[in-house]
Amino acid sequence: MRRSLFRKYFLVLFAAVVFPMAASGISDMWFSYVDQRAILSALLRSEATSAADKIESFLDGIKIPLGSTIPEDVSANAGVKQLRLLFLRVMHQVPGILSISFVDGAGAERLHVSRTGSNRTEGGADRSGDPAVVGARTAKVWYGPVIYRQGSEPSVTMAMANYDDTVLENTIIAEISLKPIWLIVSEIRVGRSGQALVVDQTGHLIAHPAISKVMQGADEKAALALRGLRDAIAAAGGTAIANRNAENERVVTASAPVAAAGWTVFVEQSQAEAFAPLYASLWRTGGLFLAATVLAAVLAYWLARRMSGPIRLLEEGALKIGAGQFDHRINIVTGDELERLAARFNEMAEELAISRDRAERMTRLKRFLAPQVAELVEKAGDERILAGQRAEVVAVFCDLRGFTAFSAHAAPEDIMQLLREYYAALGAIITRYEVTLTSFSADGLMILVNAPVPCEEPALHALKMAVDMQEAVQGLISGWRQRGYQIGFGMGLAMGWATVGRIGYEARVDYTAIGNVVNLASRLCSSAEDRQILIDYSVARHLHDKIPIVDLGTRQLKGLDGLIRVFNVETKDRPDLAPNPNGVPRKARL
């Protein structure tokens, strides 16, 4: 009884239920992870943004009253005294301000009031190059880097300048304690282990729930880790990421910028706590999946033993067929799709053998025949027309004038580029006219018309092809001469009987013609000047005035006995009529 391979697989996979279990578990776990990650990211970002807003408000609470103390001009001691009273009042209102300095438009320090140090009036110190003065005059409000007073307590310098562009700018410089920010971050809690911290542009701690970490001062290793964490969050588009914090603990972290000062607020939570529900779900899913995997392994082992034999035969057969042994046959009797697959392999091997034989024949034919002619011979299935025989042919020779001199001085890449353009132009025409290219050497080509496949009016067919070739190459020559190449192109055609057929040896075979007509066409080509297409009388008499030609009279051609009557074909590029003895061009009379 024939049994379906599909039915066998269906029953086994249905019993095993591995795929639905795995797909369900993985999809549930993935969507749970995505949802949990989105909720966690939103929560952490919300806390970080809230803390950043509070810090912005803290800085604004300093910036607004401090900005109100900037005088437009202080020209007398009375003005300085009045300014000192303003500074003291602001420091009383804002306990976080540790000191305030006033620098006039000339860059001289006029007043300095401090909680922890000595006060100075009309000190006159030149602070025009102070980064705070330069920064405030550029950005109007400037925040300096965080510094640690006595190596522990963090503070920051804020500088503000007036906005009058018509006079030199007066500048107020204040040193601000950052201890109040500790109260902001210490209030943030996310779960049991979540906490917040603030760092400056360089990654150094400004505030942390554990105040001792801030009091320890600058920690370069921790700053480097925090800068890397900030860059990683920015690369993730601002969403929370799972990474290691400065203490090398695995956490999920989000951040928010304190734009005014260039600081960053981080809010983090331990990965173990953040993803605890996911880990519990993962253990449950893993247990179910393990049980399903054991069941699937038992069933797969039983099925593999039943299928390993036929599959091995198919594998061996595929290797042999792939190696070119198309006579190999695969013998499988299982009564299911495997047997039918083996039959298809055997049919494929037969088709591949036929295709290989055809490809080899086509490769041999296309060495000397146009692709269309090669297809015709191959479809006929008879290569006897390529055997040696007598045929009336038109032999066509062509080559470039001045090529030898050009190749003696030109660079090899220029020579090869010229030949590529030359053969591309001629090859397209030869293929279109479905003639036989017997050989080419350097710049010379030999073409046969009317062999091995006959054509109507071979002389006219060959001459039309020659005119197209001359026009195509003359178009190339125009471009070559613009590049400084002194190149011409001449052609010779002769018609007559010749022995045609294949010649060569087992590994290489060419199709060619042997006879006086070949020699005559070659000599006519050698005698042709640029733009000339020289033909013999046999070609000329078959044209019947369909193509205008000019009788050039008789010539003695090298290697040939007697005088040969030569004609030149008129082309639209240049008539090139030869003069008669009376000095008047003459048409040919046949």
From TrEMBL:
Q: Which segments cross the bilayer?
A: 282-304
Coiled-coil regions in this chain?
A: none
Q: How does it sit in the membrane?
A: Multi-pass membrane protein
What's the main place this protein lives? Answer: membrane
Guanylate cyclase domain ranges (all copies): 394-525
Record-linked SUPFAM superfamilies: HAMP domain-like, Nucleotide cyclase
One Pfam family name is: HAMP
UniProt xrefs under InterPro entries: A/G_cyclase (IPR001054), Adenylyl/Guanylyl_Cyclase_3/4 (IPR050697), dCache_1 (IPR033479), HAMP_dom (IPR003660), Nucleotide_cyclase (IPR029787)
Keywords, ordered alphabetically: Cell membrane, Membrane, Transmembrane, Transmembrane helix
Q: Where in the cell is it found?
A: Cell membrane
Domain (HAMP): residue spans on this chain: 305-357
> Would you tell me the protein name for this molecule?
Transcriptional regulator adenylate cyclase
Source species of the chain: Mesorhizobium ventifaucium
